[in-house]
From TrEMBL:
Gene3D superfamilies: Chloramphenicol acetyltransferase-like domain, Nonribosomal peptide synthetase, condensation domain. It comes from the Bacteria. This is Condensation domain-containing protein. InterPro entries: CAT-like_dom_sf, Condensation_dom.
Amino acid sequence: MGPGSAILADVVELPVSVGQRLLSLMDHYLGEESALNEQVLWRIEGQLDAGALRVALTKLVARHAALRTAFVGNGRRLRQVVHEPSPVALAEADVTGHADPDTAARERVSEEMRRTIDAATSPIRPLLIRIAPATHLFVLTMHHFVTDDWSNGLLSRDLRRLYAAELAGADDGLPAVGWQYAEWSEWQRERLSGAGLRELTEYWRHQLDGARIPELPERASAPGEGEQPWVSVELPIGPETTRALRDLARRERTTLFPVLLSVFSLLLHDETRQRDITVASLFANRGSPQVADSVGFFVTMLLLRTDLDRDSPARELVRATRKTVLAALRHQELPYQLLPPGTISSRTGRADDITFQLVGSLKAREDLSGAEIDDMEGMLERRRFAFEFVVAPHEDRLIALLLCDRQRFDADWAARFVAGYVAVADALAADPDRPAGDLLAPQRRTT
């Protein structure tokens, strides 16, 4: 039993988590509707049992209380209300009559992502799209209040197992959910109070003393006619480089994230001439084992600071970045937004102007039949930051993706930046013992 199990049973109004309140503020001040929508997609090839899918969906919502949580009030009065499990309605759409059903289905998915969700009523909007007699697309659009990328992966796993178990009349074999999200929220409130809050605040104030967000070259112009409001650039990092970077991570007893962040820091240094590099990144914030299989908005944003020495071997930069990331993980419960004002300097006043992410994949999670759907369009629809650099594995290689505000960043410059990232990644993979600055040699630069 978690700290709020008894409360959950009473189904009363509860305070929201820190992350949910921050999301609410972002929605209020930025007004980016799609920023607060999330989606999980499954393409179902072959015979579909719609009845079994509805039962599985109802069981999924019963399993994860976050999916049946409504939100009332606003600002500091925002509250979450967990409802009792009940049958879930599944809307249906048929695009088989369109000249190009697949395109029509994708347009419907994009429409669902853009359309706001009334979280005061329900945080989810499930839809089944019929593309052909034996091809369907299941779309679960959710308010960001109740899910994050980790949770989306859990939902994909759980619904596939629940559906398969319903078809076979067997046990689903799913692990028990430890804490429901409202229980974790209560634990978080205790952690972010008193001595716990003082400890976390002291660490981050010391870590970020004097830090400032790099100032990338910007332009001040509106998008041209017919241009999207954001720039997106995608380039692959080849299989050989990908293998070498993974090998480097193993030799340095770390994950791929610090290796790829080191490349990003080097490129930011090359663009800004700053040695002291600080960027934002999203962390899963699941340090408690009780929430490994819980669905909700756990993710938190932290600031990662690197003091870059051009003359030291690039391997040393990876080691220093590893230490930074490990320390951040130990203090991930406090998002940077709760730090005292003025903790970090930024041209715009926002510390998340430059973000770096390593995500699980740029492909949608496995669907009910084991196939996959390209999830790139979903990422574009939910852009949230002025400059977001994402790296994701895809088959035997990595994909580097930059999403940035066209009003602030030139498209040609953005393309050169991504090409530069790939070039520095190649150079690091080829010889991590070279001085870090040498990886930015003129023949490798794109400017």
